[in-house]
Amino acid sequence: MVVDLARRQGIVELKQFTRSREAVVFTMAFPIIMILIFASIFSDEIAPGVNYTQYFITGMIATGLMTVGFQSLAIQIPIERDKGVLKRYRGTPMPKWVYFAGKVLMVAGIGVVEVALLLAVSIGFFDLEPPASAAKWFTFAWVSILGLSACTLCGIAFSSVPRNARSATAVVTPVALVLQFISGVFFVFTDLPAWMQQVAAIFPLKWMCQGLRSVFLPDSFATVEPAGSWELGKVALILGAWCVLGLAICVRSFTWQNKYSR
After folding, report:
1. So what family is this one in (predicted)?
2. Residue 25: domain span
């Protein structure tokens, strides 16, 4: 019964998402468009055996996960709150957790499709080498799952920040863009100013990018990282910490109706 409730809500959320063409294009197509543009323009070698395209693609995979988990939920939930959808959910006998379970299942489903599309484009058109061993596939899996979980919880938590549905996109999108620029998506991370690296190291995206670089880039590139290694233990620790922090903020701050309209 419990599993069936979550499954049904997940299906409802997925249907609602796919019916919004703007959301589908922005969430699913944006990272692919960015790969096609940047990878077609920049092809210089940034380290022995590593070109810019390889580096950028790993960052865009992480960005795709952030877009699906953080950005989409932080915009979608305020819209539903303003429309009274959350208030109606709260007034039904349905347990509150089912709503969140539906969001999680939606994000998981879209995240799998997004990563599959990004890998297909990158491997098919830009010669990205897939993970070369079972260990790298395992790293790819846990970095993606932990990163997506952290972004999902942070997206739900951040959904309480916009004052209303109209301001949601204007509030959330700049945050996501700034994180991309300072986290080593568009530029080699160690080329950024030291203070920018320190700020980026607070947030999940930097660690998601670093974890994914360990999967798709040669081991020799680890020496280019700030610590001279992939720091996978630290990647897991910080992403896990953000999952806990995001959950704690969700519990304390989530509201079912617009607190500014009371």
Report:
1. Belongs to the ABC-2 integral membrane protein family.
2. 2-261
